[in-house]
Design a protein that fits this description.
alpha/beta; Rossmann fold; UDP N-Acetylglucosamine Acyltransferase, domain 1
Length: 221
C-alpha cells in the first residue's frame, strides 16, 4: 500500500531523497517543507514547498509521515533539531534503506535514517535514529552507531565499534575493531583510527603532497 511522505529540505540531499523514495520505496512524496525564512519559491521538484511552521495545518501528522533530508551542518545539529521539532508536531518518521544495501542486522535501524546503496551492515549491528550512511560503507558486526551521525562513503567500521552521537566520518576513514568514537567527533577523509577518541575531537588524515616532478616527465602514464 502506497504511503504519503513530506520531505524537509530543498537542497541536493532533499532532491536525492525524493528520487530514492520515489523509485525504491512504498512512499509517494506529496510535498516538501522548509522554515519559512528560507523559502524562495512555491515549489520544489514540482511539488508544493510548505512552511514548516504551519505544516500540520496542510499535511496532518495522522495522514503523512516526515523525513528530514539535511546534511551534517553544525555537526548534525541542524538535522537533529528539525527531527526533534517534527516529533513535537506529532509526525512519525520513516527511514530510507536502499534495496541495494546488504542489511543483516535484523532491522535494528532507527527512524529518519538514510541508508544508500552498497552499504554492508553485518549481523548484530545497531543503528540509532537520524543516521545517514552514504553509499558503499562497511559496518562491522556488533558495532553501534548512535543517534544523529553522518557516515560518508567507503568508510570501514570494524567489528565491535561504538560511535557516539553526532559524529561525522569522512570518506575512506578506517576504524579498527572495538574502539569508541567520542560524541561529536569529526574523523576526516582517509583517517585511520586505532584507538578510542575523545569527545569533540578532530582527527585528520595526512594529505598527499604534490611531487616536485611534473607530470610531463612521467614516461609510463
Amino acid at each position: 500500500m502506497e504511503k504519503s511522505l513530506i520531505i524537509f529540505g530543498s537542497g541536493d540531499i532533499a532532491e536525492l531523497a525524493y528520487y530514492y523514495f520515489s523509485t525504491d520505496s512504498d512512499y509517494k512524496v506529496a510535498a516538501f517543507t522548509l522554515d519559512s525564512e528560507y523559502i524562495k519559491a512555491a515549489t520544489f521538484c514540482g511539488l508544493p514547498l510548505t512552511p514548516f511552521e504551519s505544516l500540520e495545518q496542510h499535511f496532518p501528522p495522522d495522514q503523512y509521515d516526515l523525513f528530514v533530508a539535511l546534511s551534517y551542518a553544525q555537526l548534525n545539529e541542524v538535522r537533529k533539531d528539525k527531527y526533534l521539532a517534527g516529533k513535537l508536531k506529532g509526525y512519525e518518521f520513516t527511514s530510507y534503506i536502499s534495496s541495494r544495501a546488504t542489511v543483516l542486522n535484523e532491522g535494528r535501524i532507527g527512524e529518519n535514517c538514510f541508508i544508500l546503496e552498497d552499504n554492508t551492515i553485518q549481523p548484530f549491528v545497531t543503528i540509532g535514529n537520524n543516521v545517514t550512511l552514504w553509499s558503499g560503507n562497511h559496518i562491522g558486526h556488533h558495532s553501534t552507531i548512535r543517534d544523529h551521525c553522518f557516515i560518508a562513503s567507503h568508510v570501514v567500521i570494524s567489528g565491535g565499534v561504538e560511535i557516539k552521537p553526532q559524529c561525522f566520518l569522512g570518506v575512506n576513514a578506517t576504524l579498527r575493531d572495538h574502539i569508541v568514537v567520542g560524541e561529536k567527533c569529526v574523523v576526516g577523509a582517509g583517517a585511520l583510527l586505532l584507538g578510542d577518541t575523545a569527545a569533540e575531537g578532530v582527527y585528520i588524515g595526512n594529505k598527499t603532497e604534490r611531487s616536485d616532478r611534473p607530470s610531463t616527465t612521467l614516461n609510463r602514464v
